[in-house]
Every structure is written in C-alpha cells, then in structure tokens.
Amino acid sequence: MKRLLKGGRLVDPANGRDGAFDVLIDGDRIVKVGRDLPIDAGTTVVEIPGGYVVCPGLIDIHVHLREPGQEHKETVATGTAAAVAGGFTAVACMPNTTPVNDNAGVTEYMLKKAAEANLARVYPIGAVSRGQKGEQLADIAELQKAGCVAITDDGRPVSTALLMRRALEYASMFNIPVIEHCEEQTLKGDGVAHEGFQASSLGLRGIPGEAESIMALRDISLSSLTGGAVHIAHMSARQTLEAVRFGKSRGARVTCEVTPHHFVLTDEALASPVPYDTNTKMNPPLRETADRDAMLAGLADGSIDVIATDHAPHAADEKHVEFDHAPFGITGLETAVSLCFDRLVHAGVVSLPRLIELLSVNPAKIINVTGGSLAEGAPADITILAPDLAVTVVAAKMKSKSKNTPFDGWQLRGGVAATIVGGRTVYVNGDAGLLV
Amino acid sequence: MKKDLLGIADLTPDDIYRVLETADAMREIGQRPIKKVPTLRGKTVVNLFYEPSTRTRTSFEIAEKRLSADTLNVAVAASSVLKGETLADTAMNIEAMSPDMIVLRHASSGACHLLSRICRSRIINAGDGMHEHPTQALLDAFTIKEHKQTIEGRKIAIVGDLLHSRVLRSNVLLLTKLGADVWVSGPPTLVPPGIERLGVHVTTSVDEAVQDADVIMMLRIQQERMQGAFFPSLREYFNVFGMTKERVRLAKPDVIIMHPGPMNRGVEIASDVADGPYSVILEQVANGVAVRMAVLYLLAGGVEDEAAA
Question: Could you tell me where the DSSP H helices lie in B6-86?
C-alpha cells in the first residue's frame, strides 16, 4: 500500500532538504521524495496542512523503560506509547533495570516486549559492568550481538578510570560508544540539589557542577588515550560544556546530550511555585541560570550534539515523600517536542533544521542506527510536527505509566501531529486535525 | 499570618513584631502562681517529632498546656522512617482525627511543606532538616529585643556550623528583615554557598565578626562533621572559631551571648563564656515558652479575635 505525504514543509538535514517536498511511502520504506509528486492510482494521499513539518523520526537515546523489574513505574509497552505520543519513532533504553541488562537474556526480553508493543523501535543499551557494579566488564560482545547499541552504567558513573579505559578500548572493537553518567561520587555525596544559593536557602545538600565536569574531563582524556567514543549523558553544568568543547577542539571522540529540563528550568523551580516539589528533583540536578544559559548557547553554537529526555518514570507514591527521600528523575518523552519548539525554535535559539539534527540526525549517528534521514530507500520512520499548535501539558492524560513531570499545566507552542514507524501510523494527535 | 508557620521566609516584619508583642503578654502568664489560661481549651495539638529533641518539644508542650490545649506527643523513631509508614500517610492518619495544629520536627528540609499541602490542620515547623527553625529565631529576636530594645542597626555575629544549621537560616531571614547588621562566620567548609545573597556579611575571621558586636550567637558544632572532613579536629576548631573570653572583649561592653543549645562546652564555646555574665542562654530557653504560646495563640485565630473585639 502506498501513501503520499503531500504538502507541508519537509525538513531533512541529512539530505540537505528543507522545503515543499512530498514523501511517497510504500510499505515500510520511503520510496520517493520530491516536489509535487504525482498521485498514482491506489496511492492514499495524506494532506499535510501548510505550516506542518515532515521530518525524520525523532530518536531519544536516553530513556528508562523500567522493564524488566520495575513495571509499576513503566513498561516497554507504556514507555513506547509515550514515545510515539511524543513524536519519537525510536528510543534507546537504559540498562539499570532489575535485573540489569548485562546479558543477552535481558536484552532479548526487552526486544521481545518491544516487538509485542509494536510502537516505537527500541534499542537496548547494555551495562558496562556486570550488574553495573563497576567491577568487571559485562559480556559486551554478547550484548552487542543481542542488539545493544551502546554500553553505559547509567544511574552511576563507570566506577574507576581503569574500568572506563578498558570499556572504551573494548567497545571500540564493535564501534559502539560508551555513554557516561558523569558524576564524581565523593563530590556528589548525599547531595540532592544543585549546590548554590537555592540549595543553601532551602537547606538541601548540594551537588556542585564540578562533580559532573571532573568526570567528563576524566572520560575525555581516556577517550583520547584509547580512541574510543564517549558520549556524555544528560549534561547539566556549564563546566562540563567547557570540558566537551575542549575535548572536541583537541579531536577527542566525545559527544554530549542535554535534556529539555536542563535548558528550560533552573534550581529556582525547587522553591516556587511549589516549594520542595519532588518533580524538580533529578540527577543531575536543575542548575542555576548561568548553567541553563550555557546549555542554550551550546545548543545554538553546535557544541551540543543531542537532545535526549532522560525519561525517568517514578510512581506517584514514590515521589510523594520528603524531598531528601524522593527518587531522582522525571518523565520527558511527552513534553520534549513542545519544550523544544517553545524554548528553542520560537525563542530563536536554534533553527528548525538544527532542532531536527539534535533530535534525530545526531542521535542516529551516535548509536549507529538507521534513521535520522528521509532518503529514498530508508525505513519510513517519520514524525509530523505542528510548530504552532497550542499545547497544554496535562500529566494525567499522558501515556506514560508515571506522571512525574514538573511541566503539568504548562502552556506551550508547538507539538506533535503524528508519528509513523516503518510506514505504520502509530500515533495521531487528535488536537492537530490531521488525517494520516 | 498565614495558615501555617513553615518558616520566617513567609513572615512580614509586622507579623514578626506581632508575635514578639504577643509573647510579651504571654510571658506574664508563666509568672502567675496558676500558670494556665483557657485560650486554647478544646483545641488539639499534636507534637509530631521525627528527631529527638528535649528543649523544643518540652517548650512546645509547656506552651500548649499553659494555653489549655489538649496535647499529645508522637515521637517517631528515626530508624523507622525509611521502612515504615510514609510521612504523608502518618500525616493523613493524624489528620483523620481532626487535630487543630501539628507541630512537626523532621530531619528532612521541606517536610513541613509536604504536610502543609496534605493537612487542613495548621502546621508549625519545629525544625526541618537544614532549612528553618522559625520559633527559635522568634525567641532569639524576643531575647535580643529584651536586652537591646531594638534590632534594627544592631551588629549581630553568628558563628559556627552555618552550613547544616536551620537556626542560622531562620535567624538570618528574621534579623535581616528587621534591619540588623548580620555577620556570619565559620570555616569555609561550613559556609552555605551564596549565603551572602541573603544580605549578610560573610567572614572567616571570628574577630572581625565579633568586633563591636551587640549580640554574639553561637551555633552548635556536631562532632560527626569531623568525619566529613569539614574541619580537622575539635581542638583546632576551638582554637580558630571557639568563643573565648578574649574574643568576647572585642565586642561591645554590653554584648549578649546566645546559643540555641545543646551546647558543646570547649568546642564552640568556652565554659566561662557560656556561664559568664554576658550569657543569656537560659533566658532564651525561658522565652521560648512565651514565644511558642504566642505562635500557637496567633495561629489558632488570635488575630481575628482581637480584630473582632
């Protein structure tokens, strides 16, 4: 069955296209991209309203799907439902499940659940170390063969410089990156908030930006030593951005990502509107204005490669406790696109093509998966965006099993109209008035 | 005043003066042969303490009893906090029994804000983590005012573990609201980052802080801070930051020395200073009852009653 996406603005930075192009889909593939494509008999035409954007499917390379083991927070099915509702055609899921994804059995289980859900593509990320204990390497060849696209001990840093060195060396054999949760653990201590005026005034234990940048500098040095690729996860501190710029200028194989919450919010959100709102508690913490502004600058000047959500669902009762005792993390899949439009594109921080690079082209490159391109012959993973759609965030209506978002009730401009994975329409936003 | 007393941050200078004036009237009750008035008769006050406390809990309980409230103490062992019922569940259970006020002491900053969102009862913060201890700051202000008449323009030196101290935060907020010249001093490892934004002078020189001070307020040093490498030894701490007679001489001749307790003699304060002529430490304890009576009375609706009268 052929479908023709007709009209709208096609933004496909990987192929240098930005303009009025139509896309012809046959089965699960893109077969033709061009201006004013003819309509063959038997082709269903999907009229894309003017002003809407057709782009390569968005890819979130930092998601916690919580399955196996923490299904009360999220499952692969609910997490991928949230993903496609957020415009993501693929997600890479973190290994800190129960048990840890440190062997092919867990990887295969995740992929089986993803196949059953049949929504977004799921790319598991394996553990660096067995049990994420930071002692010995996991069976990385086995993980990679089973389908893992990267390795990480996310939730914590790779424990020692030596283990990181070995991981980078070993992973380079498979051309997969080591994704690092940068955190010098003695400096982080039992901190729960960014070290600064807000934490001081609220009486919360602080985590300085240097807890992140010190580890980033270690890893960038080790990347230079080994030639291995390191990807800095959820960067939050301006010092880390400086470290990444330094590394890139020296030719190190370092890339980095930032989350929407770290370029939208600051630690002032801990004090108001709701003091000690546990939905403002995440790791790394919301930092101060200078850090938030540095993240915006890094997005604008190209130092930052990727926007990823660090989607971290937690059940309501787990968050309904004292700030100190609440788990770190917020959901992100279903708010990312609207935050990116409102705070980046409409605010003039980045252009739309640059946003697509951050959300699709570069993520695909870093984890070496197909996607990020609307080339003829590529899988038909396509996101249709509505840049001017008025969106009100309603946590209760989210597809994710957990509703732990600090953005509930926010009014934002820009959203997702529809999501197509492998030629199948897996999500249509009822508010966007699109017939896909 | 608002429904709850969560912190000095929520109070206006007028609110603070109203508490201090009311406390003045309340103190007289404590001097009568029969130390009881019927003001809070029929009101139920729950003292919910998640941290051990002798002074504050006793002080609240005496204040409640002098106002004829029905009081009950719930002490939750610290060890059961993580494995037992959540704070929210405990609060909802207590709330179900319709108390009028809950006095909460908790090791986590913001715990009383959580209760405030859950409960219709009025919440009084009796110390939350490293955040605030508003009744302590109010009783300190009451004590200062008693000796110095005014707070505005007075030089007040606060010395000790600034980082972990809720007493510090509440006092800084209160004293700066009332226009005092506040100096804080402690080892750099125990200074909260950005504290100067609250309008205080920060110095590592105790002598500079104490010089010509009207009030010296000492903060407790917890011995376990040595393990966190905040300072090398109690001996060294005392040598550099301890309040000695020699240091006190740098202050104004009529300086008063305060301490929220419990004191570590020979660590943050020399015994001869703690027991010396400038010390008002026991007056602070005495004033605590009157100030807490004032807070209970005002939160129970005293303001509206007065307005109606």
Answer: 13-29, 55-66
